[in-house]
Write a structure and sequence with these properties.
With 350 residues, this protein is of the alpha/beta class. It contains 15 helices and ten strands. Helix content is 43%, strand content 15%. The strands form two sheets. The chain has a six-stranded mixed β-sheet, with helices on both faces. It is globular. The structure holds pyridoxal-5'-phosphate (PLP). Pyridoxal-5'-phosphate (PLP) binds next to helix 9 and helix 13. Pyridoxal-5'-phosphate binds next to helix 9 and helix 13.
Length: 350
Amino acid sequence: MRTSILVRYKDYLPITADTPLFSLGEADTPLVRCKALETEIGCGELYLKLEGCNPTGSFKDRGMVVAIAKAMEAGSKAVMCASTGNTSASAAAYAAYCGLTAVVIVPKGKIALGKLAQAIVYGAKILSVDGNFDQALQMVRGLTEKHPITLVNSLNPHRIDGQKTAAFEIVDVLGEAPDYLFIPVGNAGNITAYWKGFVEYFQATKARSKPKMMGFQAEGAAPIVRGHVVEKPETVASAIRIGNPASWKKAVAARDESGGVIDMVSDAEILAAQRLMASKAGVFGEPASAASVAGLIKLSRKGLDLSKKRAVCIITGTGLKDTDAALKDAQPFIEVPADLAAIEKVLGWA
Ligand SMILES: *Cc1c(COP(=O)(O)O)cnc(C)c1O
């Protein structure tokens, strides 16, 4: 059994004698080096951090295990979140494990089917709001202020604390911080969390340096890049379809303190990166997670010299939850009869 991050990183987490220590198997995710992508992109060393390997298929589980443990410690009976999909899946799973009620509010018709299926089978109470994520989050903030229910969106500081452990893992595995960290930005909790993690490890002298934080929004949902709220965010990458990020200021601080950038990538660049990552590295990430690789490719094409650098791309969630997005412009099957000779002919082996 793996050690819970609640135990492994307890010195960096808000753990008390009363915090329940448990694990659904989250964290300790693979850091995979990909030489084919290094060659393709022209990067010295390139690693993919596979957060889709978490129990519900996204990094949200790291934050959720801490948020739910602290909710249990506080005697909470119910948790609530707004979600583009992955937060609701994670909240529902951890609430189920701990015997809590989970209430999730999702934007109507805007959530990938695999994520919705998760919330349903884990037994969450699911409300579909006729609005976008930002409006759903507003509802949840209002409701959790009024009722004795714990908010488990990334506004909950325990979520950020749990998610920062991914930065610790990267340093623990590589022996030091990478030069660059590429990461998708939606509500901006995760870039905030990673930066917090790198800074804390640096201060604890576990790392001699800190990475430049390279955050990427989708072009149709890029409020930080454009400098204003996007009222109707649109992108194929539903997990970052957010027009008014809750951690906006903290993301900007992470960018500026690290000497990094927050930029944007188009849906076409995102889908191309998703394909490239799958076909060159054998890693199937959901569209939002491919924004990190798309960003790396974009900057390298624009002249950022990474040839002697070590970069890590955070692959935030598994592609299996959103097969619709992946199949959108897919090549059709080659239809064949159940006949050996005919198949040999099609394959050019005849
Ligand atoms: C939540 C999520 C993001 C965005 O993270 P933020 O903390 O909202 O910036 C990116 N990718 C995936 C797969 C996610 O689930």
